[in-house]
Design a protein that fits this description.
The protein is mainly α and 264 residues long. It contains 13 helices and no strands. The longest helix has 43 residues.
C-alpha cells in the first residue's frame, strides 16, 4: 500500500496548489472588481485622471489574474474569475463610450468573446445612469447620442442567438438590456416634451400685455361706434356681426366719415 500513500500525497499537493491559486485568484478578482467600479464612478463624475489611474490598475490586476491561473484553466474559466473580467470589459467600454473614444476589442482586452459580450450588455445600465444624470439638468442632445449607442448595442446582442452554454447566459442579459433601453427612451421622450412645453409657455410678458391692450382697444372701439350709430339712427345691423370692425362705415346708418373706425 506504499504506492497508494504516494498517490494520495501527490493528489494532496495538487489540491493544495489549486486551493492556493484559487484563494489568490479570489482576492485578485475582488480587487479587480473594485478598481473597475471606481473607474466607472470616476467617469460619471468627470474625473478623467482618476478614471485613467483606476483603469490602469484594473488592467494590471487582470493581467496578474490570467498569469496566476495559467496552469489552472478550470479556475480561470470559473464564474468568479469571468465575472471579474466582465467588470473589466464593462469599465473600459463605459469609459470609452461616455468620452466618445473608440471601443476596445476583445483581443485588446484579452478576454473571451462571451465575457466581452456580457460586459457589453451591462454597459447599457451605466449608459442609462449617465443619461438620467444629464436629464436632471434638462434635455440634451448627449442623451440622444447615448440612447443611440444603447440601441446599437442591443441590435448586436439580439443577433447572438446561441445556447447559453456558449454565451454564458447572454440571452438573459440581452432581455435586461432591452428593458433598460425602453425605460430610458420613455424618460428622454418625457424630458423632450417637457422642454417643448416650457418653451411654449415662456411667452414674454410684454407680448401678453400687447395682446390684452389690443383686445381692450377693439372692445372700446366697438362700443363707441355702436353708441355713435345709436344716436344717429338706432342700433345698427353690425352690432352682432362686428361689421364695423371689418368694413368701417358700411352699417347703413351713418357715413364712413362719421364712423369712429372709418375716421380712425
Amino acid at each position: 500500500m506504499h504506492k497508494l500513500e504516494s498517490i494520495t500525497e501527490n493528489i494532496r499537493r495538487n489540491f493544495d496548489a489549486r486551493t492556493t491559486a484559487r484563494d489568490k485568484a479570489l482576492a485578485t478578482a475582488r480587487q479587480l472588481t473594485r478598481a473597475c467600479s471606481l473607474a466607472i464612478r470616476a467617469v460619471h463624475r468627470s474625473e478623467a485622471e482618476t478614471m485613467i489611474a483606476h483603469l490602469a490598475e484594473a488592467r494590471s490586476l487582470a493581467d496578474a489574474l490570467r498569469a496566476d491561473l495559467t496552469n489552472h484553466p478550470d479556475l480561470f474559466y470559473a464564474g468568479y474569475t469571468q465575472d471579474a473580467l466582465k467588470e473589466f470589459v464593462e469599465a473600459n467600454v463605459t469609459c470609452a463610450l461616455i468620452q466618445g473614444q473608440p471601443l476596445s476589442t476583445p483581443q485588446e482586452l484579452n478576454v473571451a468573446d462571451a465575457t466581452y459580450l456580457n460586459g457589453l450588455a451591462e454597459v447599457v445600465g451605466e449608459l442609462r445612469r449617465r443619461t438620467l444624470d444629464i436629464l436632471r439638468h434638462g434635455y440634451s442632445a448627449e442623451a440622444e447620442r447615448l440612447l443611440g449607442i444603447m440601441d446599437d448595442i442591443y441590435s448586436v446582442l439580439v443577433t447572438m442567438d446561441y445556447p447559453d452554454a456558449i454565451t454564458n447566459g447572454l440571452r438573459r442579459q440581452t432581455d435586461i438590456a432591452r428593458s433598460i433601453i425602453e425605460k430610458t427612451r420613455g424618460d428622454i421622450t418625457f424630458s423632450l416634451r417637457g422642454e417643448h412645453l416650457r418653451k411654449e409657455a415662456a411667452c414674454p410678458l410684454s407680448q401678453t400685455r400687447e395682446i390684452d391692450t389690443w383686445r381692450a382697444q377693439v372692445i372700446a372701439i366697438r362700443w363707441s361706434c355702436t353708441l355713435t350709430c345709436w344716436i344717429a339712427g338706432g342700433l345698427p345691423r353690425c352690432f352682432w356681426r362686428w361689421e364695423c370692425l371689418r368694413w368701417p362705415g358700411r352699417c347703413g346708418v351713418i357715413t364712413p366719415t362719421r364712423c369712429m373706425i372709418g375716421a380712425g
